[in-house]
Amino acid sequence: MFCIGVCSWCSAQTISKAEYFFDTDPGPGNGTPISFTAGDPVTFTENVSTTGLSPGYHDLYIRTKTSSGHWSLFEGQRFFVDGGIIDAEYFFDGDPGIGNGTPLNVTGSNTIIQTISTAGLSDGDHYLFIRTKHDGNIWSLSDPRYFHIRVRIVKAEYFIDTDPGFGNGTPLTISTPGDIINFTPTITTPVLPDGNHYLFIRTKDILGKWSFIEPLMFTVDAALPIELFDFIAAATKDGRVKLQWTTASEVNNDFFTMEHSASAKEFTKIFQVSGAGTTTVKIHYEEFHENPDPGINYYRLKQTDFDGSFSYSKVVSADVHKVTSVYPNPIFDKWSVEFNDNGGYDQKYLEILDLTGRKIAHYKTDRLKDEFSRDGILTGTYILKIIFADARTEFLKINFR
C-alpha cells in the first residue's frame, strides 16, 4: 500500500477530480479515482494498493482535473515491489556459479538464520559469500564476509632422542584445548649417559594432524657439582642467542659464568649469574647473548663453588644468521636493511608478516644494503621474514609508528 498526498493551486478555478494509475496511461478519466473535497488549493491523502503488481520496478502516476474540465500533466514516482526471498545459497572463497552454492533454508520470511559449517576448510583466511533469489527469479549480488580459521590443539606428547612414532610418545596434559597452548610440563628423564641429548615435543590438532617437532638439547654431566638437567643455546628471531640451563640440584654453588667463543678454542666471559647455594629444588636459568657473531657461536657454562673450585659443562652451539641492521626501528616512513656477508649479492626475498603470520607486504633485493617504502603499512608490531638464495630464513621483529 502507498500513502500519497497532493497540494495544488490553480488561479480562478478549483481542483474537482484526481486519479492515479500504474505504469501505463489508461487515458484521462480512466484512472483510479482519488476521493477529496474540491477546492483551491486542495490537500488529500490516499492509500494506494499494489495488489496484483508483479515483483520488480513500477511507476505510480497522479493527475488532477480543474472545474473547467482541463486535466493536468501527470508526474511519476518509481517504486519497487519486493516479492520476498524464495531461495538462498552460500559458498566459500570461489564462486561456483549462480544456483550452484550450498542451499540455505528459506521459510517464507525475509530473514534467514542458519548455522554454517566450516568443516573441511584449511587453516588461514577465508571469505563467506551469501546471495538470495527474489520472486521473479532475480538473484542478488553476493557480499563477502572475511573470517580466519585456527585449528584447536587437543593433544601433546614428548620423547627423548629417538622418535617412537606419532601417538607413541609420553603424553602431556592439555587442560583446555585451544589454538594457542601455553603449558609448563614436568618431564621425567630416564637414566641417560653423560653427554648431549634432545627433548622433542609435538602437538595434535582437532583434525588429527600432528605438528612438526623441534628439538631442545640438554646435557647430562655427572662430573659437575650440580645436577644439570639441560643446557641449551638457541638463536632467536631478532639475532640474539637465548641461553637456558636447568639444575635438578645444587651443592655449595656460588655462581655461574657464561663463556663464549667464535672458534670453540678460546672462550671469554659474557655474563655471570648467582647460584642457589645448596638445594634439591629444580631451578631454571635464562639469559641472552645480545650481540653474537654471525655464524656458529659456542658456549660453555662455568660453575664455581663457595671455596673457589670450579668445573665446566659441555660446549653447546647456536648458528646465528642475522641481518646487520634494520633502521630506523621503529619505522616512520622509509626503512633500510643492511645485510652482513652471509647475505651476499644473491637475490633475497623479504616479507612483512603480522603477528598472526599473515603476509602484509613483500620485497626483493640483490644488494647488501637497500631502502624500502612503508607502502601504507598500519601502525603496529610486525615480523620481517628474510628468505635467502640458499633457502635460509631469518626473522626480525620491527615496529611501524
Structure description:
- Helix content is 0%, strand content 52%.
- It has 401 residues and is mainly beta.
- The protein folds into five domains: 2-81, Sandwich (Immunoglobulin-like); 85-149; 153-213, no CATH class; 221-320, Sandwich (Immunoglobulin-like); 325-400, Immunoglobulin-like (Sandwich), CATH 2.60.40.
- The strands form seven sheets. Strands 16, 17, 18, 19, 20, 21 and 22 form a seven-stranded antiparallel beta sheet that branches.
- The two termini are 57 Å apart.
**Amino-to-carboxy terminus distance:** 57 Å
Q: Describe the global form.
A: elongated
Q: How many structurally independent domains?
A: 5
N-to-C order of helices and strands? EEEEEEEEEEEEEEEEEEEEEEEEEEEEE
State the fourth-level CATH superfamily of the largest domain: Immunoglobulins
User: Mean of the pLDDT scores?
Assistant: 82
Measured as a percent range, the helix fraction is: under 10%
What secondary-structure arrangement, pairings included, does this model have?
Layout lengths: L1 E7 L6 E8 L9 E2 L8 E7 L7 E11 L8 E7 L3 E8 L9 E2 L20 E11 L3 E2 L3 E7 L3 E8 L9 E3 L22 E11 L8 E7 L5 E10 L5 E21 L6 E12 L3 E7 L5 E11 L4 E3 L3 E5 L4 E3 L7 E4 L9 E6 L5 E7 L3 E4 L7 E8 L5 E8 L1
Antiparallel strand pairs: 1-4, 2-3, 2-5, 5-6, 7-8, 7-9, 9-10, 9-11, 12-13, 12-14, 14-15, 16-17, 17-18, 17-19, 17-20, 20-21, 20-22, 23-24, 24-27, 25-26, 25-28, 28-29
